[in-house]
Amino acid sequence: MSPSFDAGGLACLVALADTASFAGAADRLALTPSAVSQRVRALEAQWGQPLVIRTRPLQFTAAGGVLLRLARQWQSLGAQAARELGAGAASGERVPIGVNADSLATWVLPALDGLMRAGLREGHGIDLVVDDQDFTLEALREGAVLGCVSSVGEPLRGCRVQRLGVMRYVAVASPAFVAEMLPEGLRAADLGRAPFLVFNRKDGMARAWAKDAFGLRNVRLRERHVPSSEAYVAAAERGWGIGIAPLLQVEAALAAGRLQRVRPEASVPVTLHWHHWQLGSEPEADTRSATTPDTTLLHRIGDALAQQAAQALEP
């Protein structure tokens, strides 16, 4: 006998994931926090294991992540059916996708602009979840998002992956910083002395660049954390340190002389991919046509990202 899934309980899991609290989920669903808790406990009783860790912020167990993934896919399929039945504007579909901060700061917003504007008329929305490109796939695995931009090329089971292009990272610094700190250019001996800008503790780009530039196996850097893609470039322009940034993001500053390349022969190419859950019976990418239109919002997002990436990224 096929297992049964309570739609109300699954909706509570999505609301909990989006708001990170029972009070927020209750507001989202027009319920009381007690009602949300009861529905979650009913799911936990049904499956005989905890689904949610009631901490601040709220967390999902591995089993909770499995049901959250199902809940998001279920909602997406329901929204697609509503559109096909002529109720698209009332569907209220929200699709969370994971992106890395550098892509968000450069080419993702233009890619999604048309869909975001269409969402005002069609009643759908796209929620952006930001993480390092090496970690966005974990959000997809855990059910936090339905699609993601990732540097990982291997698809998860039940997912599809599409290559987007290459984002090339280069080392940059302000002319004043170079004149003061690197009058003879950056040498291996300077790596522990000259500060490097790092996005956060997950960010290994600076170390990857330094290893490649000098052929070293282990590198220890003097790091300064700047956890914003735009502020990261601004900090480099202010002379806070050496930044390893996408060439796409710093081209204007290089042309204007606000930044200059450090060891311009060295760079780190990062290949980006679009991953998404396969929902329902989808036509293969190479067989889709005007006669077999792909109407899912998730696929429209993927198509928009692929089109913009083809213009903005290296092949």
TrEMBL record:
UniProt GO molecular function? DNA binding; DNA-binding transcription factor activity
Classification via InterPro entries:
ArgP, LTTR, LysR_HTH_N, LysR_subst-bd, WH-like_DNA-bd_sf, WH_DNA-bd_sf
Keywords per UniProt: DNA-binding, Transcription, Transcription regulation
NCBIfam families attached to this UniProt entry = argP (TIGR03298), PRK03635.1 (NF002964)
Q: Is the keyword Protein transport assigned to this protein?
A: no
Q: Does the keyword Cell membrane apply?
A: no
Q: Which family does it belong to?
A: Belongs to the LysR transcriptional regulatory family.
What's a Pfam family in this record?
HTH_1
Alphabetized SUPFAM superfamilies for the sequence: Periplasmic binding protein-like II, Winged helix' DNA-binding domain
Question: PROSITE patterns from the xrefs?
Answer: HTH_LYSR (PS50931)
Q: Which residues form the HTH lysR-type domain?
A: 5-61
Name the record gives this protein: LysR family transcriptional regulator ArgP
Residues of the signal peptide = none
